[in-house]
Design a protein that fits this description.
With 156 residues, the chain is α/β, with parallel strands linked by helices. It has 6 helices and 5 strands.
Amino acid sequence: MWERTFDTRSDFAGSILERPVCAEAVGLVNCDLNRAAAEVMALQQEQPEVLLLHSTSALVWDVGRRSDCRSKLYTGLTFAGLKTGFITERLLEAGRVPEAPIVFVPDVVYLSSSARDTLREYQGHPVLVGGPSVLSRDEYDRACAPIAAADHVPWH
């Protein structure tokens, strides 16, 4: 937050503007980013080699069941040097078919029917990571047919 306050109970108390070393560091990083703008932009615009599926339906239904599969899979893929991106349930619902050659489904049990239909059109290689219940339910907690031609990798 780029704001100052004299109220010690405020959310802005102790912000970056009250710490000169931090404000200086932000300025230096900004100068470095400006110098390397073309290279940074090229990195940002590079197309992902693999995608991870993010499902809002899974977040809603899996309240008591939190898996660290997605974060560990993301870490492993990026440390392996792969440009990793995300495809969301909402993008699939809008009819956007993933363009990356591989889509990982990290322990996602719930996915909306319309997103599932778009994922069935995907011509690449889907990899389901998790137990036998991965992609087994829709957004209303109804059982669904499995996605054909997908590899299944167990997750513990």
